[in-house]
Write a structure and sequence with these properties.
Layout: H1 3-7, H2 12-15, H3 19-65, H4 74-111, H5 118-125, H6 138-142, H7 144-167
Length: about 170
């Protein structure tokens, strides 16, 4: 089923005189909801960034406070927790990306029923995300951050597993 067919529920003639006005009102509401999704996405990123920063600060604090040459086995646990956390962060970013992509397909479809298509025009002016000189989607950068933390945790984990073995 095409998106246009799934979007329309009733014919304009059957609906009545308020058809276009109601489409416009629903369009505005839909854009507000898309904006709220973006806010939730930012909040989720802030949450994961804060947790990861706190975990790495904890590692740094524990390392400074350690009298031993080799780190505590606790670092292994923190490394594992960090890896899992980063994977969930990555999946959440992907989920929000997919949700936003779907929402803007619907926005473009609704705009076909309106006199002007501002989001469609904006997307075209940005090369539809295909030309990074015109526009680099936020997700391309955003999706790298969890992997950077993932690599840091993997290195911490590998280092500590190797060090822990040598003291046993």
């Amino acid at each position: 089923m095409r998106l246009n067919e799934s979007l329309k529920s009733i014919d304009e003639k059957e609906y009545g005189i308020e058809y276009k006005n109601h489409i416009l009102e629903q369009y505005k509401l839909y854009l507000e909801m898309a904006d709220k999704i973006s806010e939730r996405r930012q909040n989720a990123n802030s949450f994961f960034l804060s947790i990861n920063t706190a975990l790495l600060a904890l590692i740094g604090y524990a390392e400074i406070g350690s009298n031993e040459v080799y780190p505590f086995p606790l670092f292994i646990l923190i490394g594992l927790c960090g890896l899992v956390l980063c994977y969930f962060w990555y999946r959440l970013v992907r989920s929000y990306k997919d949700l936003n992509s779907g929402k803007f397909l619907v926005v473009h479809e609704i705009e076909k029923m309106l006199p002007i298509k501002p989001y469609n025009a904006e997307w075209k002016s940005l090369g539809e995300g295909k030309d990074s000189d015109l526009y680099l989607p936020f997700t391309h950068i955003e999706i790298i951050v969890p992997w950077i933390f993932f690599i840091i945790y993997a290195l911490i984990l590998v280092w500590n597993v190797c060090c822990f073995r040598t003291i046993l």
